[in-house]
Every structure is written in structure tokens, then in C-alpha cells.
Amino acid sequence: MSISADVVKSMNNRPAEERILDFLEVEQGLSEESAVLEALRCMGCPRPRCKSGCPVNIDIPAFINEIAQNNFRNAARLLKKENMLPAICGRVCPQENQCEGLCILGIKSKPVRIGALERFVADWERENGVETPDVAPSTGKNVAVVGSGPAGITAASELARAGHSVTIFESLHKAGGVMSYGIPEFRLPKEIVNAEIDQVLSLGVDLKLNHIVGRSITSEELLAYDAVFIGTGAGLPYFMGIEGENLNGVYSANEFLTRVNLMHANVFPEYDTPVIQGSSVAVVGGGNVAMDSARVAKRMGAKVYLIYRRREEDLPAREAEAANAIEEGIEFICCANPTKILGGPAVSGIECVRMNMCELDESGRPCPVPVEGEEGKFTLNVDVVIEAIGQGPNPLLASLIPGLKRGKKGNIIVDENGRTSIHHVFAGGDIATGAATVIEAMGTAKKAAQSINEMLK
Amino acid sequence: MAYTIKKATEIADKIFEVWIDAPHVAHNACAGQFVVIRTDESGERIPLTISATDGDLVRIVFMAVGKTTTQLSDLVSGDTIQDIAGPLGQPSEVKRWGRCVVIGGGVGIACLPILARELKAIGNEVIGIIGARNETLLLLEDELSAACDELVICTDDGSKGFHGFPADILKQKLEEKTIDAVWIIGPAIMMKITSIATLPKKVKTFVSLNPIMVDGTGMCGSCRVTIGGETKFACVDGPEFDAHLVDWDGLMQRQRIYPEQERQSLELYHEHKCRCGEKHE
Ligand SMILES: Cc1cc2nc3c(=O)[nH]c(=O)nc-3n(C[C@H](O)[C@H](O)[C@H](O)COP(=O)(O)OP(=O)(O)OC[C@H]3O[C@@H](n4cnc5c(N)ncnc54)[C@H](O)[C@@H]3O)c2cc1C
Ligand SMILES: Cc1cc2nc3c(=O)[nH]c(=O)nc-3n(C[C@H](O)[C@H](O)[C@H](O)COP(=O)(O)OP(=O)(O)OC[C@H]3O[C@@H](n4cnc5c(N)ncnc54)[C@H](O)[C@@H]3O)c2cc1C
Ligand code: SF4
Ligand code: SF4
Ligand code: FES
Prior knowledge:
The complex is a heterodimer. Chain A is an alpha/beta fold. Chain A folds into three domains: 15-128, Fumarate Reductase Iron-sulfur Protein, Chain B, domain 2, CATH 1.10.1060; 142-235 and 392-456, 3-Layer(bba) Sandwich (FAD/NAD(P)-binding domain), CATH 3.50.50; 239-389, FAD/NAD(P)-binding domain. Chain A has helices at residues 5-9, 16-19, 32-41, 49-52, 60-68, 72-82, 86-92, 99-102, 105-108, 114-128, 150-161, 178-181, 190-201, 219-223, 253-262, 288-299, 319-327, 395-400, 430-433, 438-455, and strands spanning 142-146, 165-169, 206-208, 227-230, 236-237, 250-252, 280-284, 303-307, 331-333, 336-343, 347-360, 366-370, 377-380, 384-387, 391-392, 425-427. A five-stranded parallel sheet of chain A has the order 3-2-1-4-16, with helices on one face. In chain A, strands 6-14-7-8-9 form a five-stranded parallel sheet. In chain A, strands 10, 11, 12 and 13 form a four-stranded antiparallel sheet that branches. In chain A, β7, α16 and β8 form a beta-alpha-beta unit. Chain A starts with a helix and ends with a helix. Chain B is α/β, with parallel strands linked by helices. Chain B folds into two domains: 3-88, Beta Barrel (Elongation Factor Tu (Ef-tu), domain 3), CATH 2.40.30; 99-254, Rossmann fold (3-Layer(aba) Sandwich). Chain B contains nine helices and 17 strands. Chain B has helices at 23-26, 67-73, 112-121, 141-147, 166-176, 188-195, 234-237, 248-254, 259-275; strands at 3-12, 15-21, 34-38, 46-49, 52-54, 57-63, 80-81, 83-88, 99-105, 125-132, 150-155, 162-163, 181-185, 204-208, 224-227, 230-233, 240-242. In chain B, the strands form four sheets. A seven-stranded mixed sheet of chain B has the order 12-11-10-9-13-14-17, sandwiched between helices. In chain B, strands 5-6-2-1-7 form a five-stranded antiparallel sheet. In chain B, strands 4-3-8 form a three-stranded antiparallel sheet. In chain B, α2 packs parallel to α9. The two termini of chain B are 31 Å apart. Chain A binds chain B through residues 171-173, 181, 208-212, 215-218, 235-237, 239, 241, 245-249, 251-252, 254-255, 258-259, 263-264, 268-274, 276, 345, 394-396, and chain B through 1, 24-25, 28, 33, 38, 42-45, 67-68, 82-88, 214-215, 217-222, 224, 226, 231, 236, 250, 253-254, 256-258, 261-262, 264-265, 268. The structure holds flavin-adenine dinucleotide (2 copies), iron/sulfur cluster (SF4) (2 copies) and FE2/S2 (inorganic) cluster. One iron/sulfur cluster is lined by residues 42-45, 48-50, 60-61, 103-105, 112, 114 of chain A.
């Protein structure tokens, strides 16, 4: 097996056999002592490499130094100066590619566990009384923020702190975007998402739920604001386009995760929204979304297969997430691709073809080519299929604003300051970059909000 | 945030009209659009067509069929619901067609007033045809006869108006005069059968599809339908589509994904109501 058990060992996880029975958090936080010990490992580099890996520019050595001095309150202040969602980022940032990936200690041994320390400080502050950051005197300017995912929330906090009157419009009944409907409870407890969003709202931000911009608010009404930030995300699910895809029991990962995370279908009938409780589930895809879907299905009691078309070492998911999934008993079937979903009207199976790995393609990974003939075919008996093969930019709003330039895939085109083709309209997060990460969404949103602050001066 | 019910009335057998104070929906709503409602914290998100608006108020008309619609039917003026999002979906293609026929079957009749009024306001001639199993299931007759140039009422059993189906009247009208556009809104099977009538003369025919939805904003794909061989999301690409391109069997199959859970939900709700000592019909 190419995914190393080491990754799992380095985390502070609850045992797999226990955690697959519930939706409680898998990774446990650091204790005060271990946080201080870990903080003491940081060398406080004068030109810290770690910092350049953080899209929101947290002063990493400074906050870690405060932890080492047992001064958690100051550490929290330093964090929140740059990042209003530290408990979230500490949990879901792919730190191995960001801050920790660049930490100088990582060259010879293990990098400082920056994410775990960030989480520790944020959790400490939540338990010991949260301080609301200062807000500048009112500027009298009105700014609209569309979408309440990490991009929208971050933009709103930057804008509110600069003294603007900020209104967030969110089409769903709950704020948070993917953090609320996509990322499962056992990786990111909703209590934490709510608490961090509430902190931003406490800056005086007005949140309007159930408001679909482009519909409840027309584009003319939107453009009447002094400035607009669009953070509508990459919520459009792609489907494979194979036979049997519309059978009952085939879900997009978005639908499956929304039913469970946002609507609590896992505790039906206590909550009204149903979901098919598969006894055997096939998840198609190899990214983080696929891992989340598989691990949710597992917790609902199913035997779970994950079907991925390349090799295990090519899995785009974070190594730690793949390792967690394996530990939880998800069966990975790599080098295979579904060709047909069987059944009618309900799913009864999935037909797949094995893939051979050929020359490298433009992504530098081997190109999967189906094995010809009967020997390449196999069938799995499953009653639920979850497709986690990617999402595109949410097309609704962008298509309703005349003059807003979009790229081929439907993403909103922005310049390096986050400005769109309309002078006072800015965009950030997945709607601008395509599906990325929480922290990148926050980074681009912060940049755009700073440009708005500049413009409104 | 909660939204207040301003008026709630049973207007036909098990069919209810409810007015909700929701300015964000009411102000920009057009014919053909819908709302998504969640009654309370543990509720499901269900789509309902916007049947009319009046100032800040939105009217929905629904039949109590399952848990959520039954719960909605138990609400009275002054009660609140947790969420109402909208308007969602593409507005109906309202333009100067000439002569239009709008057809409603069962609770689908509720979708017609706003459509008929918009069509008429810009100079179309509007013929309304409404049908139900029997007289007790007919609704909004007065409102529709005011909104249409002509209104024909049908019942399957002949208890009121024409004894037969809207399709029969539609065929007759298509013989008598030129019809430029037709809307058919009702149960899937009724839309499927009725829309066959407009095929020979290739009259532009719209139907409003009602697959199971979750978000209603294009994010989950639950509402996918096949239109002319292509996958579309009914909540953002529709809900109105060209009737002659719809894969009806696919739609009807996907409306029946959760029969067992729906039954269980409704049973539990009735049990709960009994325990709480409320009236129980
Ligand atoms: C299952 C899953 C797991 C993930 N795991 C991780 C992870 O572990 N780590 C990580 O860093 N990233 C992860 N990601 C990616 C990350 O969640 C996204 O990159 C990030 O949420 C993008 O933020 P955003 O604010 O741009 O958009 P979103 O989070 O998508 O939020 C957009 C919001 O805008 C709202 N909206 C859309 N249109 C309108 C409109 N017209 N009017 C009003 N509101 C509107 C939507 O309802 C939504 O709430 C994951 C993604 C998924 C799907
Ligand atoms: C765009 C649209 C507009 C609609 N407009 C109206 C309307 O104006 N009046 C009206 O009475 N009905 C309307 N419907 C149908 C209505 O949404 C369902 O009857 C309602 O969801 C049933 O919920 P329930 O809990 O009472 O019943 P359930 O017992 O949950 O279901 C009864 C039947 O309703 C359908 N249904 C269940 N859940 C959903 C869901 N989340 N989304 C869509 N359908 C579902 C299923 O086919 C099911 O068999 C509309 C549907 C759509 C998609
Ligand atoms: S926000 Fe993310 S990238 Fe930045 S320091 Fe924290 S964990 Fe690292
Ligand atoms: S690079 Fe590593 S050691 Fe240096 S300051 Fe950053 S975290 Fe500390
Ligand atoms: S209801 Fe989710 S995409 Fe249409």
C-alpha cells in the first residue's frame, strides 16, 4: 500500500473502530502542554518560509512564540488580525502544501505543526472568552457580499473592520457555504463553523439568508451598492454522463453531503430529509470530496468502495484523508472506471472497466486507458452510487449580471486585485479560481476586500 | 429569521392557500418561478410554485400529500415558518405570442393566475382550461375567469363543467383557431398526455416539471431531468421546459425515490399531533 500509515500516526485521531460509529470529530486537539512543547520547536526564523505559504499572511512565528510563552490570549489576537476563521483553517487547511510544507524544520525532520497550533489557540479562545476585534468608525459606504462561504465571510470581516456597512446575501438557510453543507461534521464540527461565523457577524455584518442574488435581489439592485464582492463558489456538480446515471440511488457528492451535513438525513426521521441508506455504496472519484462522501457513507453503516481511475499514488486527495479512509475500512479500487450503472428504477450495481496506465498526460500523471475486452470488465453489487468527480463555478448569478466577463468554464475573470470587468464589482474564492481550498478562497477574498477598501477611501 | 403566515384557507378538498410575508420573494417574483420552504429547524426543503403576489406577500397553494405539506396545512394566520427562499427558477417565457392556452390540472391550477395575468397584460389573448377529478378539487375559478379571456372547466366525473379532460378541450381549440403557445401544469402524467395534443401542429408547449429538489439553486443535481437527450437541472434551467422534449418516464421514476420514508414521516407527524392533543382528521 502506497499510502503510509505514518501520516495517520502523526495525527491525534480517535481509533477507527470507534469513530466510524458516530459523526464526532476524528482528530483531537493538542493539550496545553503539548501545544507549548510543539511551539518551542519553532526557531522563530527571521525570514520565515512558513509565512509565504499562508495565503492570508498570518505572522506564524509571532503567534507560535506567544504560545511558547504560555500567552494564548496574545496568540489569538495575532491570529485573528489576519484570519477570522482560525479554528476552521487549523482543521481543514492542507498545511502540508501550505505553511507546514515550507517550514524549514521540514527539510531535515518534521515541520512545526502550525495547523494544530492554530486550532489549539482558536479552541482555547472559544472556551475562554472571545474578543471581538476593533471596528473602524463608519465610512457611510454600503458593500454587498454575495455568498457566505469562506470567501464571503472573509471579505465581510475585512470590509466591516474598515468601517463599511456590510450585507451578506446567502441563498441557503444557513451560512458557511461548503463549510456547512459539504465538509462533514467529523472533520469540521458545525458548532465551530457557527461560532467563527458569529464572530464575524458580531462586527456588525448583516446576514440575509434565503436571498438568492440575481433573483431575490436583482442585478440592478446589487450594482447599486458602493461596492460588491461575489463569492458564490464552485457549487455546480458534474456528472459522468454514463448509462444509468438517473436511477434512484445515484447522487452527486454535493447532494449526498448536503442531505446529510446540512439537512441531517443521517438521523431521519428525527429530521424530515431522507437519503437512501445504502447497504453497499460505490463512491466514484479520488479527491477530498470523494473521501468525505465515502467516510460519511461508512458512518451510515454501509460497505463502501471507492473507485478511482488512476493509481493509488495519484489520488488527488490529501494523503492524510486517504489514509483515514483506508483505516476506516473503505475499500479502494484504483485503476478502474465505471462504465454503466445497473438496475431500474433503483440501483443494483455498477459496471466498471480496469484501466492501464500509459504515457504521462499534461498533468504529469500517467494517462488511464481502458483494458479492452471482457477481461477488463467487472461488476460491483451496490445500491447507492455517489459521483464525486468535480464541481464547476456556480453559474446562476454570474450569468445574470450583464457585462460581467467569464472564462470558458464559467468562472468570473478577475485581475490581481480581485477586480472583475465591472469597476466596483470584485470576486474571490472558488467562483474566481475554480474549485480550490478554504484558505485560498480566504486569501483571494482578503485581497479583493483590501482593494475595495482602497477604492472606497 | 422567521416568516409570518398572513392568511391560510382550505380552498378545495385538502388544497390550501397560504399567504406568507416575504418581501424578498414577493418584490421580484415572476410567473413560472417557485419558492423553497422549510417549516422548522428539522424540516425538509420543499419547492412550491409562486401562485400570486400582493405587496410583500407571496401566495402558495398546495395539496396536503405528505409530512411537510400536511404540517403547512395545519398552520394558521400569525404562525411562522422558518425559511422561504426565492424566487427561484427561470420566469415563464412571457412575450407577445398572440393567442395562448394555459391549462391546469389538479393543484397545478394554482400556477395559472400569475401566468395568465402576465400574458394578458402585454396583449395576449388567454384561454384558460382547468381540470380536476371532481368538483370538490377545483380551485381559483373566479380568479381565473377574471384573468383569462375565456375559462373552460372540466371534471373527470362530470360533476362540474365539461365531462372529460383538459386534453379534449385543448384538441377542440386547436381545431377551431390558431394557438400560438400552450402551458400545461399539473401532475406529470397529465402533462405528458395533454401535451401530445399540440404535437401535430407543432405548437410551442411549455410544461412545469416537478422533480424532487433539495437546494433549488443548482448545487445538488437532485432535480436533474432529461430534455431532448440532455441533462438539465429543473431548478435553474427550468422548471418550465418544452413539453415535446421531456423524458417523462425518467421524471416520473425520479419522483418516487423515497416512498417508504415519506410514509414513515407522515405517520410520525400524525402520531405526534395526536399525542399533542391537537385535532386530527
Ligand atoms: C466535500 C468538500 C470537502 C472539502 N474539503 C476541504 C478541506 O478539507 N480543506 C479545504 O481547504 N478545502 C476543502 N474543500 C474546498 C473548499 O470547501 C472550497 O474551496 C471553499 O469552500 C470555497 O469557498 P467559497 O467561499 O469560494 O465558496 P463556497 O464555500 O462554495 O460558498 C459559496 C456560497 O455562496 C452561496 N451562493 C451561491 N450563489 C449565490 C447567489 N446567487 N446568491 C446568494 N448566495 C449564493 C452558496 O449557497 C454558498 O453558501 C472541500 C470542498 C468540498 C465540496
Ligand atoms: C418547481 C416545483 C413546484 C411545485 N409547486 C407545487 C405547488 O405549487 N403546489 C403543490 O402542492 N406542490 C408543488 N410541488 C410539489 C411539492 O414540492 C411536493 O408535493 C412536496 O415536496 C411534497 O412534500 P411533502 O413532505 O408534503 O410530501 P412527501 O410525502 O415528502 O412527498 C410526496 C411526493 O412529493 C414529491 N416530493 C417529495 N419531496 C420533494 C421535494 N423535496 N421536492 C420536490 N418534490 C418532492 C415526491 O414526488 C413525493 O412522492 C412542486 C414541485 C416542484 C419541483
Ligand atoms: S491559515 Fe492555513 S496556511 Fe495559514 S498558517 Fe494557518 S494552517 Fe497554515
Ligand atoms: S519556518 Fe518553521 S521554524 Fe521557521 S518560523 Fe516558520 S514554523 Fe517556525
Ligand atoms: S434542486 Fe439541487 S440542483 Fe436543483
